[in-house]
Amino acid sequence: NLSNKLDRAFKTLKGQGSITEINVAQTIKEVRRALVDADVNYKVAKTVTDKIKDEAMGRDVLIAVSPGQLMVKIVHEELTQLMGGEKQDIVLKGDPAVILIAGLQGSGKTTFTGKLANFLKKQNRNVLIAACDVYRPAAIDQVKVLAEQVGVEVYSETDNKNPVQIAQNAIEFAKRNNKKVVIIDTAGRLAVDEAMMREIAEIKNAIKPTETLFVVDSMTGQDAVNTAKTFNERINFDGVVLTKLDGDSRGGAALSIRAVVEKPIKFISTGEKMEALDLFYPDRMAQRILGMGDVISLVERAQQSFDEEEARRINQKIRKNQFNFDDFLSQLEQIKKMGDIKDLVSMIPGVGKAMKDVEIDENAFKPIEAIIKSMTKEERANPDIISGSRRNRIAKGSGTTIQQVNNLMKQFNDMRKMMKNMNKLTGKGGALSKMK
Ligand code: GDP
Ligand code: MG
């Protein structure tokens, strides 16, 4: 990945005082190529790398940090800035706030509409979805199915083929029924065409939405940028939603679109499930483009799902070197709650790409669980008493082999050893005691 390449490019530089022009020129080439590989528009990649070059020149290299790492840091900072620096929230002013969803057919508008409704509902907002795709008979049904999943009401009119009217009626309906946010899902076509542009512009003029969000498929590369440009010229949208970032896309579209239309990206969509929606954080996307993996999202997702109380309890036990198989089992349960394991694995730096084509077996935990559940209460609480004959019994009871039981015991004991060592370091008088 890009960070490795940078590190390699700078290996020879180690020990020198600063980043010099010659070194930079070579690295810049690598960076530019990597950006283009990540779907960044060539012109944008050139602008970015020129800026990075200026920034990198003459920066002092700390002795402890390798120049390659410093370069990665500079590239990361520049990319973050270019994508807007800070995250930008959607605006929900007005009663009701009206959010208009625009984009090509298949870009993920309807899916995003459901996700956004879900997201806002979780903030205790009273949300209404207006189904304004009047061309495909199945469109309204699709909206209804998603809305039902997330528990949000839909406004639709079966006989009316005028999306402008439906949108207006939906807003009136929202006012009468105390809805605070109306999300208007619209029709798209397979390519940019005049009829679609006219329709979305008419809807926008008629309802004056609080926010107009342009939804675009990140997998479409350069087309994504051109589509964004055309839509923006016509309807001057307020923000961008980048979809299908769960696929192979490396997120380069985020950088290009931002650079070309100068509008903030507000959400990213990472799957077909209603929960697969994230706010757009420029620094994380910069990391993704750099190929470092979206570690922070991973941690956050884990935190959301972990039962905090339980986590605290287990932490206490780890601190006291009392971690046992009951705690281990409880942690497995927590990990399973985190949802689609493949989703999570794909976010781990380095691992993500390598695991892309590997089927991850969600049943991999099953034998481990079976083994632990075949232990007696006493054995789980005091793993040290699990002798050879007990292991035999456990293997039989759980339908596994003695090797599997031994492996688990070894892993478990290694884990405990590591925890003990950590405790020594972070405990009173330990080298890392300040980090606690
Ligand atoms: P629309 O025509 O713009 O309303 O697009 P839809 O919302 O109907 O989505 C088109 C297809 O893309 C559907 O099969 C969705 O399930 C799928 N889809 C939408 N968003 C995502 C996403 O973030 N990731 C993936 N993998 N699929 C998505
Ligand atoms: Mg749709």
Automatic annotation (TrEMBL):
SUPFAM superfamilies, alphabetized = P-loop containing nucleoside triphosphate hydrolases, Signal peptide-binding domain
Q: Please indicate if the UniProt record lists Nucleotide-binding as a keyword.
A: yes
- InterPro entries membership: AAA+_ATPase, P-loop_NTPase, Signal_recog_part_SRP54_M_sf, Signal_recog_particl_SRP54_hlx, Signal_recog_particle_SRP54_M, SRP, SRP54, SRP54_GTPase_dom
| Domain SRP54-type proteins GTP-binding intervals | 264-277
Pfam families, per this entry?
A: SRP54, SRP54_N, SRP_SPB
Keyword set for this entry?
A: Cytoplasm, GTP-binding, Hydrolase, Nucleotide-binding, Ribonucleoprotein, RNA-binding, Signal recognition particle
One biological process GO term for this chain?
A: SRP-dependent cotranslational protein targeting to membrane
**Where does this one sit in the cell?**
Cytoplasm
Gene Ontology molecular-function annotations: 7S RNA binding; GTP binding; GTPase activity
Tell me the residue numbers annotated for binding GTP.
Answer: 103-110, 185-189, 243-246
What reaction(s) does this enzyme catalyze?
GTP + H2O = GDP + phosphate + H(+)
Q: Which GO terms describe its cellular component?
A: signal recognition particle
Enzyme Commission numbers on file: 3.6.5.4
Listed under subunit, the entry gives:
Part of the signal recognition particle protein translocation system, which is composed of SRP and FtsY.
| Similarity field | Belongs to the GTP-binding SRP family. SRP54 subfamily.
Instruction: Tell me, in a sentence or two, what this protein's role is.
Output: Involved in targeting and insertion of nascent membrane proteins into the cytoplasmic membrane. Binds to the hydrophobic signal sequence of the ribosome-nascent chain (RNC) as it emerges from the ribosomes. The SRP-RNC complex is then targeted to the cytoplasmic membrane where it interacts with the SRP receptor FtsY.
- Domain topic, free-text comment: Composed of three domains: the N-terminal N domain, which is responsible for interactions with the ribosome, the central G domain, which binds GTP, and the C-terminal M domain, which binds the RNA and the signal sequence of the RNC.
Task: Tell me which HAMAP family the record gives.
Answer: SRP54
- The protein here is known as Signal recognition particle protein
